[in-house]
Amino acid sequence: MNRPIGVENPEVCKVCGGKCCKTYPGLATPEDFGAPDIEKLKKNLFKALSSGRWTVDWVKQEEGLYFVRPAVKGFEGSVFDHRYTGECTFLTQTGCKLSFENRPESCRMLIPKIDERCDSQGYTRAVVAQRWKEYYDILIDVAIDVENSNF
Fold first, then answer.
1. What's the CA dihedral at 87, 79, 120, 107 to 10 degrees?
2. How many other C-beta atoms can be found within 10 angstroms of the C-beta atom of residue 126?
3. What are the pLDDT digits (tens) for 26-77?
4. At a CB cut-off of 8 Å and minimum separation 6, what does 148 contact?
5. Per DSSP, what are the bridge partners of residue 28?
6. Buried-exposed string 67-103: b where 16+ CB fall within 10 A, e elsewhere
7. What tens digit of pLDDT does each residue of 73-89 get?
8. Closest listed residue to residue 2, CA positions, set 39, 44, 32, 47
9. Where are the domains of the chain?
10. Which neighbouring-strand residues pair with 69?
11. What are the counts of helices (DSSP H) followed by strands (DSSP E) for the chain?
């Protein structure tokens, strides 16, 4: 599966100052970490979660609806984090620290608008968590491995 790239518009984002990034980090999809290649997914997830800059969040734990996103600034290092607000760890004074191609899919696909009512293209927590559902066991196993390796 090809990863959607979208169209970056730094001029609009610069004027806005990254208000969306200051509110909540973007949501990553399994393909951002190498899915459907399971070995690549495991390796990339382990590396990302071990960095402390990425975390596992959820919508409904009892239904296995988890997803991956960048950590909230000031709360890096938590493998699992369920904050509803907070600034993305990758936001800097000059924009995103990640190259456009390495940002979460929801960030790459965001359509920025001058009036700060950017189009998220339907990348809600629930929608992205559904995309992770088939990889639930892998995601949880890797996250637990990362937690155990930090002790």
1. 80
2. 10
3. 999 999 999 999 999 999 999 999 999 999 999 999 999 999 999 999 999 9
4. none
5. 68
6. bbbbbbeeeeebbbbeeeebbbbbbeeebbebeeeeb
7. 999 999 999 998 999 99
8. 32
9. 10-149
10. 55
11. 6, 4
